[in-house]
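User: I'm preparing a small set of examples for a lab meeting where we compare how different chains pack in three dimensions. I only have the primary sequence for this one, and I'd like the structure in C-alpha cell form so I can line it up with the others. Please keep the answer compact; I'll paste it straight into my notes.
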Amino acid sequence: MKRILVPTDFSKYSEEALKLASQIARKYDSEIILLHMLELPHQGSDAMGGGKSIPEIMHFKDRAISNLEELMDSEYLKEINVSEAIEFKKVHEGILDSCEKNNVDLIIMGSHGTSGFDELLVGSNAEKVVRYSKIPVLVVKKEAQDFKARNFVFASDFSKETRKPFKKMIEFAKIFNSNLYLVMISTPNSFKTTRDAEKIMHDFVANYNIENYSTHLYNDTNIENGIINFANSVDADLIGICTHGRTGLAHFFNGSIGEELVNHAVKPVITFKI
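Assistant: Understood. Below is the C-alpha cell output for the 274-residue chain.
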C-alpha cells in the first residue's frame, strides 16, 4: 500500500480520517496525499470563478493553503511522507482524478455520525466516490486510537461478479492479518436456506487460497440491519462490501444499501468496486 489519499474539508471528521491514515502509513511506510477540493459556487458566467472575483478566489486558496500547512504540522504526521494538493474541481471528480493521476491505492474519508457525510464530503459527493472509485474506499466515523482490522466482516451474495473485488479484499485482509468473517444475509425478500447458503459460500471460497476465515449465514429484517447486527455480534473492527459503478449497488446490495450502511454503521466501512 504505497499511497493513501485523504480528502479534507478541515472538519473534525476528515481529520479523524487523516489520523487513521497516519496509523496505516506509519505501519506500512505509505505516502499520504492530503487533498482539498476548492469547489466554488457557480453563480455567474465566469468560467473559472463561478461569479467570484479573482481576489476572492485567491482568498479561498490562501486560506486553504494555511489550513493544509497547519494540518501538515500535526504531531501525528511527523516522520510520515505527506504531500498536499488543492484542486479547483467538483469534489468527487477531483478525488477520483487525483487517485488516477497519483496511482493511489486507498482512499480514506471521514463521515458525520449517522446523518450522512459532513460539509464538503456531503451526500452525493461521498456516494459518488464510493460508487465510482476503482480503488478501495475506507469510510470512518470516529477517531481510532489504534486502528486494527483484526475482525473483518465481508458481506456479499458471493456471485460470480464479486470475484474481482473479493480478491482485492483478501489482499487488504492479508495486510492487516485479519480474521475474515464471510457473511451472507438472508431476509424475507431474499431468503436462503442454510444448506443453499453454505454451498454457495463453500463453492465460491474454493477458488481462492485463503486462510483465517469462517462462513456465516445471518437472518434479519433487511440487508443493512443484518450486516450491522452481525458485525456487532462478532465485535468487528471493519465491515467490507462490494459496489457497482454503473447502476449503484449490485444484486445483494441493491437500492441504497451501500449508502445507508456507510451512513449508519458506526464501525469503519471499506468498499471494493465490482
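A couple of notes for your slides: Residues 43-49, 113-123, 247-251 have pLDDT under 50 and may be disordered. Strands lie at 3-7, 31-37, 82-87, 106-110, 137-140, 151-155, 179-186, 213-219, 238-243, 269-273.

User: Perfect, thanks.
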